[in-house]
Amino acid sequence: MNRASAPAAPAARLAAPRVLMLGTDPEGRGGVATVVSLLRQDGLFEREGVCYVPTHAEGTTTHKVGAFVKGVWGTLICLARRPEVVHAHAASKGSFVRKSILLALARASGCKTVFHLHGACFDDFVAGSNGLMRRWIRHTLEKSSTVIALSSRWADFLRGFAPAARVVVIPNSVPLPPRSDVEVQPGRILFLGQVEPRKGIYELVEALGLLRERFPQVELAIGGQGELEQVKRRAEELGVGERVTMLGWVTSGRKQEELARASVFCLPSHAEGLPMAMLEAMAAGKAIVVSGVGGIPDAVQDQENGLMVQPGDAQGLATALARILGDEQERQRLGARARKTIEERFESGVVIGQLSAVYRQLRDEVA
Question: What DSSP assignment string belongs to 213-250?
Fold first, then answer.
């Protein structure tokens, strides 16, 4: 069975779901798929009676359209069983359009609705939309029973754009893995994410060039998909082509091994929501170097549990990486504090409890 044929199955198994959740295929790639997979793995679906219906899948345009059509059908089946809450994971552009239509159907059916924003560039999406679309975006936010933002910064933006929206902050969650006994490889920098300019990958390659003389063992491992050939060419132009390893897409099982091997995790993005890869690196006890954009400052305090740099600043990035690569005690200190942050604020059980509280409040309003 292909992925696009799967959406109707959960609806058929759950005769009376309390929560209908909409989002991308959890077996796919990307941050939202990871979030949904972890919520299911860590017990939210069983605890709250969740029927999950994918409305998007990776692949060709035809495949994506087919997945959406099947998602609409699965949504209608679940809505006929009168769930108490419809919870949609959404981003920008097509993701927003799909989810906003389905949330409108849910409201028409008398359901409470939750709009859960994940998009790193949602503010750009709003700014670039025409007047009609901007009104529809604002309408969707303000008519939702609850809007979930990943960070205080995103919550402030949403409240400013849609003042009547009922916004709460619930971060992404990650499990706290056992401590690994895999040996750390000195000088190994790990990047995980979409390989594109928005993620700061080209500045990271430039920083690698600035570090090579001081740190003879330095190398960059890149996990993800996107502009792989372009990045490799840029590395060769800078004389560090042999120091760059393309890992391709890194599965969840392999991810923990790659994190364990790394000396430092780096994600110098220009825009973010609250990146799952960063949270997973912190949970693994890694020292991190990240840019202070989007929801990142909600999780990272500069020099306390990680180092923050300005986006687009290759020299500043190299300086921060050198601080960690050249000081084993600092590397261990930052990694330990990063893991402690996850344990206290972002561990799966904590976040699932917050989501359950939202559902409970909405159910109480119906009663």
Answer: TT-TT-EEEEES-BSHHHHHHHHHHTT-GGGEEEEESP
Domain topology for 3-171+347-366: Rossmann fold (3.40.50)
Q: What is the C-alpha separation between 141 and 115, in angstroms, rounded?
A: 7
pLDDT under 50 in the chain at which residues?
1-14
Q: What is the CATH number of domain 188-346?
A: 3.40.50.2000
The three-state secondary structure class of 51 is strand
CB 268, CB 262: distance < 8 Å: no
Give me the numbers of helices (H) and strands (E) for the chain, helices first please: 16, 12
pLDDT of amino acid 16: 65
Q: Which residue bears the tokens 């091994």?
A: 257
Query: Beta-carbon neighbour count of residue 200 at 10 Å?
Result: 29
Same fold, 3-171+347-366 and 188-346: yes
Nearby residues of 367 by Cβ (< 8 Å), 6 or more positions away: none
Q: What is the pLDDT of residue 3?
A: 40
CA 134 vs. chain centroid, Å, equals 24
Q: By C-alpha distance, which of 279, 249, 284 is closest to 263?
A: 284
> DSSP alpha helices (H): ranges in 109-190?
122-128, 131-143, 152-161
C-beta of residue 200 within 8 angstroms of C-beta of residue 265: no
pLDDT of residue 367: 63
- Listed by start position, the domains of the chain span 3-171+347-366, 188-346
